[in-house]
Amino acid sequence: MLGIQEVESDDKSVEPADDLRNEVLQFNTNCPECNAPAETNMKLVQVPHFKEVVIMATNCEACGHRTNEVKSGGAIEPLGTKITLHVTDPSDMTRDLLKSETCRVEIPELEFEMGMGALGGKFTTLEGLLKDIQTLVEKNPFTLGDSCTPGRAEKLSAFSRKLQQILDGQLRVHFVMDDPAGNSYLQNVYAPEEDPELCVEHYERSFEQNEELGLNDMKTEDYETEKASSEQ
């Protein structure tokens, strides 16, 4: 009825889910920078010791703009997750991390906090995320033109220099990822053993956090009974 023809695989032992993990799906879209026609690649990836995620990448051949976005492959976790890494060695920059759209990032030593939605969802390394933050700071419109004040420009410049010191391994800080949806991840290089520099805490979400995630109005159990009662 939908005009979709089922293609039978010769290998009956391959599960549909496994076949999807090995396949890169493509669909047509438009470049967010120049609006030229482009293709977006989408793939289901299993993050070791975590869960499945969906990675979407777009490369525009017209202007060269490249984007990548990560979506969690599962549901919102029952508990929120707070991940704290004590950055003590340059090798920490190579740790893989998954930052979901609902994750806040903090560096207490720099009095820095980045809220939900900033930079979107990303699957990268700690170095890659810090460089994205550095680029975001340096391209801040308040650091350019007439809207820039000497004091603000100097503070942002000093913050950028400290970020570079972290990237060069010259500054030890605590890197915090707080995700109330529990869909963010930072690599434990000692897995399955405990990492002495990595702390993962699970916590009950507050009413405000559930409200922001849209969970307070979401009813998934006994909703048929409540609907019948309200109609009566």
Write up this protein.
The longest helix is centred in the C-terminal third of the chain and has 18 residues. Helix 2 packs antiparallel against helix 3. This protein has 5 helices and 12 strands. The protein is α+β, with helices and mostly antiparallel strands. The protein has 2 domains: 57 residues, Single Sheet (N-terminal domain of TfIIb), CATH 2.20.25.420; 134 residues, ZPR1, A/B domain (Jelly Rolls), CATH 2.60.120. Strand 3 and strand 4 form a beta hairpin. The strands form 3 sheets. It has a 5-stranded antiparallel β-sheet with strand order 8-7-10-5-12, with no helix packed on it. A 4-stranded antiparallel β-sheet has the order 1-2-3-4, with no helix packed on it. The protein has a 3-stranded antiparallel β-sheet with strand order 9-6-11.
List the helices and strands and how they pair.
Blueprint: H1 16-21, E1 25-30, E2 37-46, E3 52-59, E4 66-72, E5 80-87, E6 96-99, E7 104-107, E8 112-114, E9 122-125, H2 126-138, H3 150-167, E10 173-179, E11 185-186, E12 198-203, H4 207-213, H5 223-231
Antiparallel strand pairs: 1-2, 2-3, 3-4, 5-10, 5-12, 6-9, 6-11, 7-8, 7-10
Helix pairs in contact: 2-3
Domain Zinc finger ZPR1-type: 29-188
Biased composition (Basic and acidic residues): 218-232
Family: Belongs to the ZPR1 family.
